[in-house]
Amino acid sequence: MPEQEQQEKMPSNALAEGAHVIDKTHKEQIQASWYRCEQFGLEHGSRPDFASLPRGELHDLMDQHRSLLETTENEVLPYYENILSNSACMIVLADRQGHVLNTWGQPRFGTASEHGLVGGNQWSEIGVGTNAIGTALITGQAIQVGRDEHYLRANRFMVGSASPIYNTQNDLVGVLDISSDAYLPQDHTFGMVKLMSLSVENRLIFSAFQQEHFILSFNTNVTSLDSHWSGILVLDENGTIVSANRRAEVVLARDLALLNIRQIFDIEMREIKHHPASLPLKLIALGRYQFYVKVIPPVQQIMRVPDFRQGSGYVPPTPKNNKNTIQNKVEDLTFMDMKDANHARHDVPPNVIPLAELQHGDAHVERLVKQAHKIMEKDIPILIHGETGAGKEIFVRSLHYHSSRREEMLVAVNCAAIPAELVESELFGYEKGAFTGAQNKGSIGLIRRAHRGTLFLDEIGEMPMAVQSRLLRVLQERVVTPLGSTEVYPVDIKLISATNRALKAEVKDGRFRQDLYYRISGLNIELPPLRERQDKVKLIAYLHARLSQEEPSPPLSDDMLALLEKHPWPGNMRQLAHTLKVGMAMADGDELEEWHLPDDFFDDLMMSPAEEIEHRDASTAAEPLEQLIPRLLDEHKGNVSQTAKAAGVSRNTVYKYTKMKTTN
């Protein structure tokens, strides 16, 4: 047998001059590949058959793998640009069939017809013999194929190092290859291609999950948390691991699918949610290994209504009648039944006010709560009017939770908070590349996120006219077409809108579409401002009691209730909540007193001279205010609130006499 044929029966032990010794596993991989090539009927002298794709099919293939291509080129290769620019090598990205999608670098291979590493060529073992791309795809593992290890002599001018790429479902989607005819350090090249493929996988994970999921990056060194060698875990809001990169599974040496984060690290999900993103954590994994962990919160925080019934300890109540659907139960529930049920339930989330507790004796509010609760189960939109801070979002959250749609999402959109040029893309979504700055994977849009749930459009009067037109079509046709797309997606939403504007006047002035107004105003309700509430005192006491669950505080005194009731509350419920929170924090567990309240509370609270005289204590009533106030102000070291309390006057009166003294 000729010497060359004897050598070709068994691959050489070395990868060209000065290369490292191949381990047994690698030898077995190459031998198995050569055996497959023999079974395919290939000979060492065969010419490569690249089964080149026509240009049109190649373009279609590139469109199918656009995300993979853009991730590789835009988010991974720039990290290695300096290294690759100093090496005579070519980087090749191929799909799972071995078709070359794109190449980067400056090869010394000669013409494309000689080396075959061009778009559309297929580097499979059956056509090209043992090669880095084709063999990595068959084995599913990274591999380096030396010059003499190629089955076909035609390919023995180069060394190839390839590593497969897996997507978030752990499916093999492609392979990354570095090929060169130069005598590069083989360990270095092989390690780099494995790192690059891992980098692509990491970026695919971020693209798929970063919008709505928490991502944990962990490593043994705090300075390496942002490296591509870090382990990555993707968590839903309950702490369930929904995805992970290969590095995480290798380092932790276990199947991570659907485990809870507390089964891996000594931390609860609630701690992760509130941990600053820029501050690394030092945690123990599996009870023994120490890691540094970086928390990356979701990019897009969508309002989600908690449902504690999903916990393992929840036992559903026994039905009292034969009506099985949630909708029938909700529709048949009278308001008084609902009130009793609200007090008996233990699964109402802390950020949801039970419907019966939205009013405390105000007949008007009680009536509109009944109306809105009934209409929630009908295909009729709701339009809420009310001043800023009147509690529109609290009202909507309660309606959603106490409806048959509570299992799905409540998506709240503040139309005034989104830049005008982005409202359309945020609401309707967009296809990848629809406009400059668009995400590579596109966006589903807020309307489609609310599918089968509730869409709350707050401050709808601020919506641009062009967007109003598109929203009208969505509400009429119940389908959404993302920007840059011709696809239509059906949507089932309960629409609730809110405004602090007089929309009829806006329609008359041409700033709001008349047809859209009548489309969103099925049931019109108006939340009264706090100053007009008939149950104002009880409402203040109720809110204080709820806040006391977080900041323990004794009940409000009659004097404090009278003072709070007298306030005009131009900022409504929002201002009341902030005032109580500040006062309770200052009281620090003691009974809330006037001097605990924030300074700006008194700016809107004016006493008449007669009221101030009546409010003053007998011990100070005889002393003229122009003498009393400077004296008390000096005694209380300039504290205006304590001075006003001691003098029995308003803060404005203190300011008035302070200014008079300064002027004189």
UniProtKB/TrEMBL annotation:
The keyword Transcription regulation applies. Pfam families: AAA_lid_14 (PF25601), Sigma54_activat (PF00158). GO terms for biological process: regulation of DNA-templated transcription. Keywords: ATP-binding, Nucleotide-binding, Transcription, Transcription regulation. CDD domains: AAA. Residues 358-585 form the Sigma-54 factor interaction domain. It comes from the Bacteria. The keyword Ribonucleoprotein does not apply. SMART domains: AAA. Transmembrane segments: none annotated. GO terms for molecular function: ATP binding. This is Transcriptional regulator of acetoin/glycerol metabolism.
